[in-house]
């Protein structure tokens, strides 16, 4: 499995780039948003990748962050959403926008992506809404871009300490970080976190994110 590629941009197509990695060229399909963020021909670039395997197809899909790669995987888990449709949604909204739309049940935002009809958009929201808070919570540790290196250093595994239950302050900090990553202002996000944390003692991160998003949603 090819999980990451670092090389020189040899060619830019309409929906893919050719990356030269030490003389070997890899065609990597990307969203419009990712394409716009890539450097010009001749410069170095790095992408996390997912290999799509079909009976008549082997295709590499590229992502600027592991967070976006995870959302592509989640979108493809929805019936009727393939690799191209998932890329279209991410290209239109980005990982953060997709997460926000699904968490808030905003099917119209999903439908704004090219090639996504109302039935598919509604299905995406219904099938992924329960998974969105957990995915959002992972965003803080998965949002960094891949480094332009060519060697993977293997570290000697270290004993894992016994996990401890997160403190209330740590949970609140994680929720606040997730909301800020989604584009909410610090003061509004902090107020929402304080309220939902106080009203729901013992709730986990995913639940607190979902409740905070509901509180921050525009009132109709």
From TrEMBL:
Task: Name the Gene Ontology molecular function terms of this record.
Answer: ATP binding; four-way junction DNA binding; four-way junction helicase activity
Subcellular localization, per the record?
Answer: Cytoplasm
| Quaternary structure and partners | Homotetramer. Forms an RuvA(8)-RuvB(12)-Holliday junction (HJ) complex. HJ DNA is sandwiched between 2 RuvA tetramers; dsDNA enters through RuvA and exits via RuvB. An RuvB hexamer assembles on each DNA strand where it exits the tetramer. Each RuvB hexamer is contacted by two RuvA subunits (via domain III) on 2 adjacent RuvB subunits; this complex drives branch migration. In the full resolvosome a probable DNA-RuvA(4)-RuvB(12)-RuvC(2) complex forms which resolves the HJ.
- Residues of the region (Domain III) are 166-220
Q: Where is this region: Domain I?
A: 1-64
Keywords from UniProt, A to Z, are: ATP-binding, Cytoplasm, DNA damage, DNA recombination, DNA repair, DNA-binding, Helicase, Hydrolase, Nucleotide-binding
- Show the domain comment: Has three domains with a flexible linker between the domains II and III and assumes an 'L' shape. Domain III is highly mobile and contacts RuvB.
Record-stated family: Belongs to the RuvA family.
Query: Which HAMAP family is this protein grouped with?
Result: DNA_HJ_migration_RuvA
Q: Where is the Helix-hairpin-helix DNA-binding motif class domain?
A: 73-92, 108-127
Output a single Gene Ontology CC term carried by this record. Answer: cytoplasm
What GO biological process term is on the record, naming one?
DNA repair
User: Matching SMART domains, A to Z?
Assistant: HhH1
Origin species: Neogemmobacter tilapiae
Short name of any one Pfam family annotated for the protein: HHH_5
The UniProt function text for this chain reads: The RuvA-RuvB-RuvC complex processes Holliday junction (HJ) DNA during genetic recombination and DNA repair, while the RuvA-RuvB complex plays an important role in the rescue of blocked DNA replication forks via replication fork reversal (RFR). RuvA specifically binds to HJ cruciform DNA, conferring on it an open structure. The RuvB hexamer acts as an ATP-dependent pump, pulling dsDNA into and through the RuvAB complex. HJ branch migration allows RuvC to scan DNA until it finds its consensus sequence, where it cleaves and resolves the cruciform DNA.
Keyword hit for DNA damage: yes
- Its name, as the record gives it, is Holliday junction branch migration complex subunit RuvA
Gene symbol of the encoding locus: ruvA
């Amino acid at each position: 499995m090819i999980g990451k590629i670092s090389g020189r941009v040899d060619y830019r197509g309409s929906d893919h780039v050719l990356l030269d990695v030490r003389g070997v060229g890899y065609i990597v399909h990307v969203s419009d948003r990712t394409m716009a963020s890539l450097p010009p021909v001749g410069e170095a670039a790095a992408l996390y990748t997912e290999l799509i395997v079909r009976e008549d197809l082997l295709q590499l899909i590229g992502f600027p962050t592991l967070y976006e790669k995870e959302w592509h995987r989640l979108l493809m888990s929805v019936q009727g959403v393939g690799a191209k449709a998932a890329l279209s949604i991410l290209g239109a909204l980005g990982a953060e926008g997709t997460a926000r739309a699904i968490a808030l049940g905003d099917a119209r935002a999903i439908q704004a992506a090219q090639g996504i009809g109302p039935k598919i958009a509604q299905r995406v929201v219904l099938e992924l809404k329960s998974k969105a808070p957990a995915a959002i919570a992972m965003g803080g540790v998965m949002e960094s871009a891949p480094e332009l290196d060519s060697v993977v250093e293997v570290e000697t595994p270290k004993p894992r300490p016994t996990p401890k239950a997160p403190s209330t302050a740590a949970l609140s900090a994680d929720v606040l970080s997730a909301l800020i990553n989604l584009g909410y202002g610090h003061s509004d996000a902090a107020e929402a976190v304080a309220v939902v944390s106080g009203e729901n003692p013992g709730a986990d991160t995913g639940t607190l994110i979902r409740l905070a998003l509901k509180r921050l949603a525009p009132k109709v």
